[in-house]
Structure formats: structure tokens, C-alpha cells
Amino acid sequence: FTAGNPKWKRNNLTYRILNYTPKMRQADIDEAIQKALSVWSNVTPLTFQKVENKEADIMISFAYRDHRDNSPFDGPNGQLAHAFQPGEGIGGDVHIDEEEDWTKDGIGYNLFIVVAHELGHSLGLSHSSDPGALMYPAYSYTDPKEFLLPQDDIDGIQAIYGQSNTDVQPTGPITPQACNPNLTFDAITTLRGEIIFFKGRYMLRKHPARVETELNFISLFWPKLPSGIQAAYENVERDEVLLFKENKYWVLRGYDIAPGYPKSIYHLGFPKTVKRVNAAYSDETTGKTYFFIADRYWRYDENKRSMDHGYPRKIVSDFGKTGRVDAAFLKDGYVYFFHGTTQFQFDPHAKRIIGLMKSISWFNC
Amino acid sequence: FPVAPEAEDEGKTLELVESYLENFYNLQQDHQPHVRKKGENHLALKLKEMQEFFGLQVTGKPDLDTLEMMKKPRCGVPDIGQYV
Q1: Distance CA A247, CA A87 (A)
Q2: What is the value of ipTM here, to two decimals?
Q3: B-chain residues within 8 Å CB-CB of A83?
Q4: Tens digit of each residue's pLDDT (9 = 90 or more) over A59-73
């Protein structure tokens, strides 16, 4: 919260767009700002009405270097924009640095994301230290089509203006904490000696030589990848990682998404009855990859590049564990299966489970 | 004499750190050199405040992770204090 707890005395606010940058189509700017306002009006009783030729509560403008508010901009990068807490005159206003590369997608700086953040200040919020929060000071790209206001920001703004008037209260994504014992995963893969744990729009990165676990947005490394990756595995031989979501998959070659992806999973030989993959791992010693879907699994031959005959089979028949698998990876000759907050260590030679751990056992908690 | 590259880098680093802390952590600009010593303690204090906010290792020194965070594009509103 901002010191002094400044807030608007009424809920129906006005805004005005004073000027436009030539770097984007005016319609795209209008749309980005409208969407940014709705981020906050969707979770509070606040409403925003656009006005044209008169003073508005929130005046939005593109500004250059020293624009006479005692906070000059600094040219490309660095400071992208700023906004003032609720109040008369300059209060609530949003200033956007004209010299930035403003866009409506992931190249340059996404105008929607930045304006949504600045409007948080216009409404009385300060910065959050939650790296996943919209009100985190540093810029990070999220596809506007996938954007969901994080719970940290919802809690903050509702503490000032109350909940929205809708019957169902909106909730938002919570930033994963590596040592939260309730942490579960969407997918896990090795990647050139590291282990990457996928969760929502985040990835936790564990390097064997580092104690800490690094938390990043997936989009920081791979802007083209969607959030909510459902399965992933590394083909060490080909130095590739395959990532699955719904009935599509992407190939990561080295550190880049290979061109021509996503492709359909049916290319790999799955029947059309399969709509998504829950988990996967690949064993480079045998060239076999195992795909887990519900309570069954398929085996794929990486050399022949086709599914083996006699599949699917029941997971419980060959892996000794019942129920579905959320995520799996192979490391140092053992397969680690994850289901909820439980992790099963499986010995493929002895063909049985030899260990049971917490899902977060890799994070030195 | 031409400044040795490392000394030049050090100067640039100090400049980056000071301007970041002035912009976002309310570091008072010290223009009187004789208060330099006090200024350095003050700077280390502010640096710790910034490292604390971002969940970095609180060293009071501009280590790599801290400098990397300072170079990230961001919002111009300070992380502490009012902005009016």
C-alpha cells in the first residue's frame, strides 16, 4: 500500500488519453488501455469512463525525458513509465515514456502490461515484492490473451476498494514458492544437466551446482511457449526437449524453440482419442520414451520414431503405482514420478518403486 | 591518463548503483566529498534495503545478482516512500 493510504473517494472514475505514440495503431493503444483498466474494474466495484475534452481523474499521456513533473524519463529501457497516487491534479495520472518500443505483443514492451501496472499506482497501490505480481517493479512479459491478475494484486486492490459486485469472486494465480510443501507441478524435465519444474506460467530451475532454486516466467526464456505446460521430456541424444500442452507439442533445440512448432501430438502416433499428455520421460540408454495419459502409458521408439506395438498398457502393471502421473523425469538411472505433493522414485531395472519423497525434495528446503 | 578499464567499469557500476538507489530508494545525493565515508555507509544501507525488497542476498555490496536486477527495465515509481 502507499504511505498514507491514498484512495479515490468514489468508485466511478474517469480517464482521458491525452496523446498517442506513433509506434502503435491508435486503435491498439485504446484497446490496450481499456483492457488495462478492466484488469482492476473486474476485481473491484470501480468503474472507468472515458472522457475527451475535459479534466479526468486519470490522465494518460506519452511523455518525453523531462516533462515537468520532477521525474524525467531516461530514454529507451530503464524507466518505462510512472504514475501518481490518487489525488487532485497530477494525482492518478499515468506518464508513459515515449522513447520505449511500445507494442501489443511480446516484442519490445507490451503497452497493456505496463499501463495495467501503472494504473495500480493510480488507484493507490505501491510495488509488491512478489516476483509474480503485476505490481512487481521490474517488467516481464505475459501474453495479454493469457493474462490473469495475480492473487497478490487482487488482495491488495480489494483491501482498498472492496470486492467486486459479481456473485463469484475472481481469484488469481499464486506465485510458486519452492519450499511450500503443498507445491505440485504441471511438468518436469531435465535440460542439459539442470532440472526444470513447470507450474502455471512459471518455471523453477534447479542447477546441480547451485543451492538456490531460480524462479522465472516461462515467457522470460521462451515467449512463444504458452503457460500451463502439461508434459515435457529431454532427448539427450538429440539435445532436444519436447514440451506438451493439450494436443500440441513444441521442440526446444538448445535454448530456442525450433521453427515450425507447435505440431500435433498425433504426428507421434497417438490415436485421436488422446487429447493431452499428463507426463513423459525418455531413457537414452534404451532410446525409449514413455508417455503417461490417465491410468495408461504408451512407449515410443526414438530411433524408429514411432510408437511401439502392444501399447497402451496400464501404468500399475509395469510401474507399480496406481493412479495418474502429474509429471516425471529420469535422472541418474532412476525415474521420478510426481503425483500431487508426493514423489515416487522408480528403479527401471528392478522394475519397482524404491523411494517415496515430498515433491519439493530437490529444492534444499 | 586513460582510465584503466576496470576502474572505468567500477565508476560506471557506482554510477548505476547510486542513480538506482536515488531514483527508487530515496538515497540522498551527497555532493560534499568530505561526508563520503558517511555516504558510503548510507549507500550500503540503501543497497541492503533494495536487496531485501527483491529477495536477493543482503550483502550491502553491488554483487552480480544485484546489478542484474538494477539493469532490468522497470516502473519509475520508487519502491519505498511516497510518490506525489
Answers
A1: 50
A2: 0.83
A3: 77
A4: 999 999 999 999 999
